[in-house]
Amino acid sequence: MSAPVTIELDDASFGWHGHPALKSVSGRFAAGGMTAVVGPNGAGKSTLIKGIMGVLRPMTGSVRITGAGRAGLAWLPQAAELDRSFPVSVLELVAMGAWRRVGGWRRVGDEELARCMHALETVGLADAAARGVGTLSGGQMQRALFARMLVQDAPVLLLDEPFAAVDSHTADELMALLCGLHGQGRTVIAVLHDLDLVRDHFPECLLLSGAVVAWGDTASALDDAHLKAARQWHARARA
Amino acid sequence: MSLAQWVVSPFLDYGFMRRALAGACALSLGAAPLGVFLVLRRMSLMGDAMSHAILPGVAAGFLLSGLSLGAMMLGGIATGLAVALLAGLVARLTPLREDASFAAFYLISLGLGVLLVSLRGSNMDLLHVLFGTVLGLDDPALLLVTAVASATLLALAAIYRLLVAECLDPGFLRASGGAGGWVHMGFLVLVVLNLVAGFQVLGTLMVVGIMMLPAAAARFWVRSAAGQIPLAAGLGVAASVAGLLVSYHFNVPASPAIILAAGACYLFSIVGGPQGGLLRTPRRLRRA
Q1: Is residue A15 part of a domain?
Q2: What's this model's pTM, rounded to 2 decimal places?
Q3: Do A104 and B168 count as a contact with CB atoms less than 8 A apart?
């Protein structure tokens, strides 16, 4: 891990096909923080993560990443965005996490392989290394993606619904791992649905609903007035 | 006549058979591995669309300078890439999906191509462009096919990891600093190059067969992409040999015989292949 990485958004809007899904976000994810991103479906949570990762360019405003830049970000995307029928092994999927060090041409050396195996052991998938990704259950898939994020070994971790379609046992284990990573000084930004989980584990919270509704310490960000405002926006957008 | 004679003597006795063999084998070695990726990326019909797309370019080259290999090839590459770009652009700018926009452009291309060929050539010329002249390959054509196959294999080796990563999780690759966009373009260029080189051998319509059929068959025998690639190339070569022999001994046209041999391979694989073949799949899985 290198210099502290902070993420600063200045009036940043993101969207698809010219339609903004998330408007005018300004704020800062400080190094070492642990922030949950919550909001109704279609509130722009995944859009924000993609915008920070650079997969989506801001339509207006800017995203600034200090320190190592985007090389300092590790990403756990939604499992649904992967082509799971593609014939690669779990180990190969996890090794994708080493992309910034290995790239398209360099050899995946013993050191990287050891790192991958260690990550698989950490998430309890060591036995499945040689299996095809298509044979994994939903929970196992999330564990594999978690292992890939570990292999990225970045100071900032962005997770997009890491506990969706996952059994409670897996969710508990991954949550404990995540807390451990935060304890090591890493920044954690996670899109989540379970508000109890957020209140229990995440000191900071960003509530979205097409724009920022609240951003700050979890208790006040998730107070009744804010949650009601988020729901109302959602109802309007649906109507 | 012994079996060995039946298999070997046509190639020993006739130069045009040896040339056909070399051309068809080279084409298989380059095109079939590309087909593996087309199948894995669910872009199987893309090869078909692209093969039609090169037709007007080939025809325009033919119209301007007769049966000149260079002109037809440049024309084919130009219209092939143009259709790929246009179809992608239309899909991005309008609500039409990419497959529909591809279909529209390749049908236009087909009409335009056939029209252009008929403007100057005879029906015979049109047949040559559509169905190839595998038994009449001259030195430049043979050199072109082998050069394209060699370049394809080298390029595929160079971009292999990028291509796999881009198929599996394009967003993650982009977020990790891997350039997904140009890999996709590079891959399309390889497809177009092979189709253009292959139209000499099997014709613009049937060259897709040697790209897709061995690849679709290989999928039933091995799980990994790295295993499917050599197997598809091998099946393509086998189909080329078998097709040429059948064509020679039974006096039937060569390119359809090669494609049908590859088709037989595919049908057998559907039934008998261990990876999801009908006979090997337990009944309870079949419904899933």
Answers
A1: yes
A2: 0.87
A3: no
